[in-house]
Specification:
Layout lengths: L2 H31 L12 E5 L3 H12 L4 H15 L18 E8 L4 E9 L4 H11 L4 E3 H10 L10 H12 L10 E2 L10 E2 L20 E6 L5 E7 L20 E4 L3 E7 L1 H4 L4 H10 L4 H15 L5 E7 L4 E6 L3 E7 L7 E6 L6
Parallel strand pairs: 3-4
Antiparallel strand pairs: 1-7, 1-13, 2-3, 2-8, 5-6, 7-8, 9-10, 10-11, 11-12, 13-14
Helix pairs in contact: 2-3, 3-4, 8-9
């Protein structure tokens, strides 16, 4: 056999192999295209939560491993933080309002049914996330607030208790002795940056909206997202709100689409930070819609954050996001770094992750 003939046969064999590989790839893609999930693999069950609240994430993960539902996992994780008073921003004994009283907000969303329940400015009841779940499961409403939320909880069997502690009352006394600084008033007399109230409107002055003082100890919220063995998704939040808030204030945490959002068909997201700014943009809903439009979770979270920072470059906040396959991501602005924790089959334990946040360019 001549060298030329041998070379020709080798080319022919390589061409056949190449055609076979291309044919196989095309058939696989056509097959996957006709499947519901396009042959994508699931990294579920999984749980992800805002901040370094790893005990809460561990509890949620253990519930999922015992074949608990996504809702069970979210409520269990939030309850741990309510009991441990995570960072003083969740549960009893934290974030006193101007009257020195602590109140709680919480939200639970079922991504399978789009049913949800929430409580806002609820006083004298410790288990806010459990009460939110009962609003979802035992009423046709979505959000109960104030003393009426407390009465609902009592009717459902929860015990009334004082949410203030020595620490929270001392914090409030220090704030009063410091001329009520900082506070959430604007365009009033006397000057809220120098004096306590009571205040009256200053009709002659209009000031530009300002972001609130938010840091790792005053940020609103634990947010938890869980996907269970049945691939159902749930999300939830719990918080005692902003320190020294005006009595009656409800933050973003119990607002569906702001504090959290979940849809089985696309994924879920949860937000944390300056709640008064966050709720103006519904960042959790924004992130889920971005995943619906094909963005991965990290990009979806970043788009939600960027929308806010374009209007409020000095605001501080973060968003975590998960798609229905268990892929996850996060984005943040204003903080130096933002911690969040996850657990899934790849890790098989709770891992604490950090991302670097964007900052104002000014």
């Amino acid at each position: 056999m001549s060298i030329k003939s041998c070379f020709y046969r080798c080319r022919l064999i390589l061409s056949v192999i190449s055609c076979f590989i291309i044919f196989t790839v095309v058939i696989h893609k056509l097959y996957c295209y006709n499947l519901k999930d396009n042959c994508l693999t699931y990294n579920t069950p999984m749980v992800i939560s805002t901040w370094a609240f790893t005990n809460a994430t561990t509890k949620s993960w253990s519930v999922l491993n015992m074949t608990g539902t996504a809702i069970d996992a979210v409520v269990a994780g939030c309850t741990v933080c309510e009991q441990e008073q995570c960072d003083g921003t969740v549960g009893y004994g934290g974030s006193p309002d101007e009257n020195g009283e602590t109140s709680l907000d919480a939200l639970i969303i079922d991504g399978a049914t789009m049913n949800m329940g929430a409580v806002g400015h609820m006083k004298r009841i410790k288990s806010a996330s459990k009460v939110a779940r009962l609003v979802m499961e035992n009423t046709k409403h979505t959000l109960l607030v104030g003393d009426e939320a407390t009465q609902f909880a009592i009717q459902m069997g929860f015990k009334e208790t004082n949410l203030s502690t020595i620490e929270s009352l001392n914090l409030w006394k220090q704030w009063k002795s410091n001329n009520c600084q900082p506070n959430f008033w604007t365009n009033v007399n006397p000057d809220p940056k120098m004096y306590c109230g009571p205040y009256k409107p200053n009709l002659l002055k209009n000031s530009k909206p300002e972001p609130n003082l938010v840091d790792t100890k005053n940020h609103d919220t634990i947010g938890i997202i869980a996907i269970d063995h049945e691939r159902n998704i749930a999300a939830g939040t719990s918080t005692n709100g902003a320190k020294f808030k005006i009595p009656g204030r409800v933050g973003d945490s119990p607002i569906p689409g702001s504090g959290a959002y979940a849809m089985n068909t696309y994924g879920a997201a949860a937000a944390t930070g300056d709640g008064d700014i966050l709720m103006r943009f519904l960042p959790s809903f924004h992130a889920v819609q971005a995943m619906k439009n094909g963005h991965n979770p990290t990009k979806a979270a970043q788009l939600a954050i960027d929308t806010i920072s374009n209007y409020y470059p000095d605001f501080s906040g973060a968003v975590i996001a998960v798609n229905k396959y268990g892929d996850y991501g996060a984005a943040c602005h204003g903080f130096d770094r933002f911690p969040y924790s996850i657990a899934n089959p790849k890790h098989n334990k709770v891992s604490l992750l950090y991302i670097t946040c964007t900052k104002s360019k000014s």
